Amino acid sequence: MNYLFLSKTELFLGITEDEIKAMLICLKADEKSYKNKEVIYRVGDYVKKIGLVEEGSVNIIDYDYWGNKSIIGHTKKGDIFALSYATIPGKQLHSDVVANENCTILFLNIENLLTVCSENCPYHTKVIHNLFKLSANKLLSVHQRMKHISAKTIRHKLISYLSEQSRLHCSSHFTITFNRQQLSEYLGVDRSALSNELSKMQRDGIIKYEKNEFILKNI
Questions:
Q1: What is the pTM of this model?
Q2: Which residues lie below 8 Å from residue 42, measured CB to CB, with a gap of 6+?
Q3: Residue 39 φ then ψ, to 5°
Q4: Residue 155, burial from CB neighbour count under 10 angstroms (0-12, 13-18, 19+)
Q5: Which spans in 12-100 are helix H?
Q6: In this structure, how many other beta carbons lie within 10 angstroms of the beta carbon of residue 78?
Q7: In this predicted model, what pLDDT tens digit does every residue of 78-107 receive, in sequence order?
Q8: What residue ranges in 76-205 does DSSP mark as E strands?
Q9: Looking at the structure, do residues 136 and 163 belong to the same domain, yes or no?
Q10: Where among 125, 147, 169 does a domain terminate?
Q11: Same domain, 104 and 116
């Protein structure tokens, strides 16, 4: 287990490697690896553990009545997933959590995480504080996606999403994590229509792209 990496994640921010090692033993944390497209959690599961992505990334996938799929969230290396469901006892998961690539997940029991041990460790209290900040960030991520998909046209959805990516990367030149199919599912649009609009935006001089690499142009 890479304790140096964990010490740099938002969940364990401000906690030393030795403290993390001791805490994970106390929390009875466990680590598991998954192959690309392997299901980590399924719709209907009762979740008691949050997952922290140590390697790779995962997608949160929703299905409608007819089986149509949409990506409603993406969790990259260093981030956590299943926080909301794990903190509500008896709440069934409404989405699948699926490996977006080969990945390694650190699982943490939420009850153990939120209960300060008898030693009253100061670093345990720090983790709880970090967890609240992560929860707020998750809500902001949901708000951002709602902003993207509520745009009236495919072009405006793309402009909203690509503008956010530019801000996150602090650059007009960046690489996104989604392939075309995943991006269309995330934005809730047809893949062919999405690809056509990207081509039009490139012809109009708004963007330049090659696969998942984008450059936003000044117009």
A1: 0.77
A2: 93, 96
A3: -80, 130
A4: middle
A5: 17-27, 83-86
A6: 17
A7: 999 999 899 888 889 999 999 999 999 999
A8: 80-81, 96-99, 103-109, 173-175
A9: no
A10: 147
A11: yes
